[in-house]
User: Fold this.
Amino acid sequence: MPRWGPNAAGRLHDAALTLFTEQGYEQTTVAQIAERAGLTERSFFNHFTNKREVLFGHTSEHQRQVVAREVASRPAATPPLEAVLHGLQAAADEVLEDFRELAAPRRRIIDATPELQEREEAKRAALTAAIADALRERGLDADTALLTAGLGLLVQQAAEQQWVRPDEKRPLRDLLPAALESLRGVVDGTTA
Amino acid sequence: MPRWGPNAAGRLHDAALTLFTEQGYEQTTVAQIAERAGLTERSFFNHFTNKREVLFGHTSEHQRQVVAREVASRPAATPPLEAVLHGLQAAADEVLEDFRELAAPRRRIIDATPELQEREEAKRAALTAAIADALRERGLDADTALLTAGLGLLVQQAAEQQWVRPDEKRPLRDLLPAALESLRGVVDGTTA
Assistant:
């Protein structure tokens, strides 16, 4: 399912996801991934440091950059969590929506592989830190910045969980405000 | 600083924390920890599977059990996040408050050691899962249970962060509702 045309990183990602799904993460080698993508192992290591990174490397940093940029660029009067929501929506559009059809199999592989779950946690921690940094630069105190970033991550996780469901057709950007509303219901105690 | 009298696990925990602080985590061996606690290596491995676990093993499971028990025992009409707050306060009293003077050095060692941060993330994930399970048993849908548990963990983290500050004297149980109020301020957009 190569979707990125000549883009080597994208082809490697697609090949890895296909092989992990077909034969399992543990059983798949870098050599097999490279071969399936029509590339050399050397080319693989030009893009990713190891097998684990192929599922993370190409979007994680881009996502962080987009969220941080958007949080920084909101008007000063924007409440912090609203600025974060805006950033997450921008990253949904610019980074994640293109990978929608790969998101569900990717999620299944991560959920089945402790090593990848650890990497996923590290990715979340890095995104949380990037958001908190961007909020502090807006003048928010460090404690509130960290709390707001944590809330943003909960909204992102809840929206992604809905996004990968087979019958869900809405774009991720539309699911983010819905997730924030669910979170508000819990915080206000209006959830039964 | 042995505070637990004849309790071997507690003495090992105290000895490990002292050695990690004095000479660093990487440089400390299980043999040294056992010796400092006046015990054998064999005795160490009766209590903990490895060096990393000595900072986690003796409280993590107890904390999960107390929180889950309290969430389960709240009246059905209690809003979910309030039930979680109650559980976190019970665990603060029964499990964590006794370790107050060790909490700040423990935090510094974890923050300086990526291997321990990973373990800390795993502990958080396990506590989140335990809370979500207890909420589902109260009849909450799975999505809302996970979101509520995630909010509970943010409250716990924010309260612990305040709790370990040198000039903070209030017990953790009193800092938890304050952290929830901060979180409410962010979610309602009333935080400047």
Observations:
- The CA atoms of residues 104 and 167 of chain A lie 12 Å apart.
- The radius of gyration of chain A is 18 Å.
- Chain A is about 70% helix and 0% strand.
- Chain A touches chain B at residues 79-82, 117-118, 121-122, 125, 140, 143-144, 146-148, 150-151, 154, 157-158, 161-162, 179, 182-184, 186-189, 191 (CB under 8 Å).
